[in-house]
Amino acid sequence: MFNQRSSRRIFVAISITCTAIELSTFAAAQARPLPGPDVQQIYDRLLPQINKIPAFDHHAHPGFADDPDVDAMAAPPDFSEALRTRSDNPELIAAAKALFGYPYTDLSPEHAKWLVAKKAELKQKYAGTAYFDMILDKINTESSVANRAMMPDYLDAKRFPWVFFADSFMWPFNNLREAARNPDEGVYIPLQEEDAAPLDAAGESGEAAT
Amino acid sequence: MQQENLAKLPPDFDSYLKFISQTLEDNRNKGGIAMKFEVAYFRPTTFGDPTRDQAADLYTRYVTGGIPSEKDYRTFQDFIFRYLVLEGGRLHLPVHIHTAVGIGDYFNLSQSNIMNLESVLRDPRYHNTIFVMIHGGYPLDHEAIWLAAMKNVYMDSSFGELAQYPSAFKNELKLWLETFPDKITFGTDCFPYNEVLGAEESYWLGAESSRTALTAALAEMISESEVTEVRALELAHAYLHDTAVKLYEGRVH
């Protein structure tokens, strides 16, 4: 008979099993404050496995440099950039080598022509949305958010889900004072107005959008 | 807003709010999965809590012209921001907010501190809205991870992996993995640099930096007996893919 006592035993057994399974995903010993000498070996063992995980890029601004809709913003004039985010970061040459087989160790204007030509060739070969799909494949990214003002026809919507901007709803009025606050705002605010051009309260650009 | 093809602002505040909601719905129908704010570039991220009547009065005052005072504009914006956040919950459009330092010599770090958003994030009225803290508050990522204690708040690590070298970014990720590992997501913040170096190279650098820093963080955690390798790989899957994908209810993969 399935009485209360046997039921309790089964419950205890299940609880112990579940706890054991749960604990097995954590290390058994008390955590140590310093990594051991095995950390490099663990890293070497783990990296190929982590490289195989297809990624979802939760924030990105994909697009070509001449595409004004890559962002709702634009870089202000003559601004200071942190070291690693500068376009002369030599790691970007490593990126060009990995993605395109770039054969040089610098980005001199003469050598840069090779990279521009190579990309143009690949855009022909991978026409339409195939070019950026190919880039995602190379870095093992399954999909990437496209945080852009508008979506272009050269991004595959299935792999580049759109995240749109909502700031311009907050600037529907005359923004002369806002834009005059500093040189950066002088760049940013007009772009917000452009996004909301049909809604210019002052009526200065109150034409329907095209 | 251009896609709505409106010739001028709606005449009254209710119509303006309807216009906002309609645009959000249209963007969602066009494939939009979330809305994004870069508001920290334009004003402080401390948001007041004005009434609808206050915002409506301001709309009536400025809809046909006139330059709002800074105080009036902020009050109006505070209401609109909160309205958009509520609509994000209703329409299942997660709200992404830029929370890091920004480009430009005039970007005000203290007025854009991620902690300024705490009163919005912890407001029970918005518990149906999913918030994604884009860039994880960098360089305040150490404190910011505790905002992920809220069930509807997630931290995105993008830009941290580009602004820092992997040895430093590893420390940020390790702290996050040790605190709320189920609330953190991967991103590159890729952007085209110029006509030669494009979003392609930026994607590569972001992905490589993130994967190597993630591996280093997990290797240390394994070596320090914090997690097993099995658990470490589960955490890697969650960070690189699964946690973010779950936010969009089958709309992304």
Report on this model:
The complex is a heterodimer of chains A (210) and B (253). Chain A has 210 residues and is mainly α. Chain A has helices at 4-24, 39-51, 91-100, 109-125, 130-138, 176-179, 183-195, and strands spanning 55-57, 141-144, 146-147, 162-165. Chain A has one domain (4-165). Chain A contains seven helices and four strands, in the order H-H-E-H-H-H-E-E-E-H-H. Chain A has a two-stranded parallel sheet with strand order 1-2. A two-stranded parallel sheet of chain A has the order 3-4. The longest helix of chain A is centred in the first third of the chain and has 21 residues, at 4-24. Chain A is extended and about 70 Å long. The N and C termini of chain A lie far apart (78 Å). Mean pLDDT of chain A is 85; it is low at 20-24 and 197-210. Chain B is of the alpha/beta class and 253 residues long. Chain B is 47% helix and 8% strand. Chain B has helices spanning 13-29, 52-62, 70-90, 118-121, 141-144, 160-163, 166-179, 199-223, 229-246; strands at 32-37, 95-98, 131-134, 153-156, 184-185. In chain B, helix 1 crosses helix 3 (70-90). The radius of gyration of chain B is 20 Å and the shape is elongated. The model of chain B has no long low-confidence stretch (mean pLDDT 96). At the A-B interface, helix 2, strand 1, helix 3, helix 4 and helix 5 of A face helix 1, strand 1, helix 3, helix 8 and helix 9 of B. Strand 4 of chain A pairs parallel with strand 1 of chain B.
